[in-house]
Hints:
single chain; Beta-Lactamase; 5 strands; 47% helix
Amino acid sequence: MMDAFRQSEQMPALWAAFDVIGDVVMILASDGTIRYANKAAQESLLIDSSELVGRQLWHFMAGAQGKSMRDNLPLAGDPREQIHGTGEWVSKYGTERTLHWKIRLLSAEDGSDSPLLFTGTDITDLDRARAEFQRSQEATNEALVQTVRALARTIESRDPYTAGHQSRVAELSLAIGREMGLAQDRLTGLEMGAMIHDIGKIHIPAEILTRPGRISSQEYELLKTHTSAGATILRDVPLPWPVMDMVRQHHERLDGSGYPLGMKEPDLLLESKIIAVADVAEAITGHRPYRAALGIETALKVLNEGRGSGFDDDVVGVCVMLFRQHDFEWTTAFAETAK
């Protein structure tokens, strides 16, 4: 079959067509021996056709890829099957190129020496570009993280009673998110949202934030605008996470009793529900201008009472577990008095 194929009158035209395409093309015997290699194959391997023909294909594949190809090659002899993979193949001088390859019968006829068609797309440059893009994205995200942290410190400097509040909320939110199995990118977004969830307080007069006593109902209504104000600040910031929604939603409650929009369960982000729980846990545990610290047990009692109505049941469950079973502790100390 192989000899008949090579002697076909159509071969010169076929070889010429194979040589002008950019992908690697090889004709193999049923045992994987190379019978023909186009120009792209020769250029990728930095080797002349005369050094390719007669050798078995897997000799040019790196690592376990070659063995896998050799072991699975008989499957390619079935006209209903093809084998494929992505791996490194090694040039004459030891350089490696990443190839996405396929092997299938060239002829529709099945036989012991039916020729096989090997095609491969060299994706080395694409992989490098992706890796470089990934590094660039990571650097950009890290810069965003540092910027957000600096912004959080600036916000908290206006209210010494709650210094470190956003950092502690972020710390607990991350711990909850990890326990709930959130992916790393989503955890990063959660940290960003928690780190600046009170960014809108920059629009609230400092004397309201730091007053050592109860504020009036009118002042409380003004204080509640910090969620919408924060969302407005972030509206045109091109963050790769839904941080604006987290900031807007962190005082919403599952039953619609929260603010600013009275949103309910189906419309709330999981991240927002996590921040809401962490925010309450931190706020009740620590000192405030109008009261002393109430402690974590009081905070957990409040969360349990609102479980399933105001707060997400699963999120509260994880939060309680972190404190009671895992002995969670904040690394940022609580302020006891205003400085």
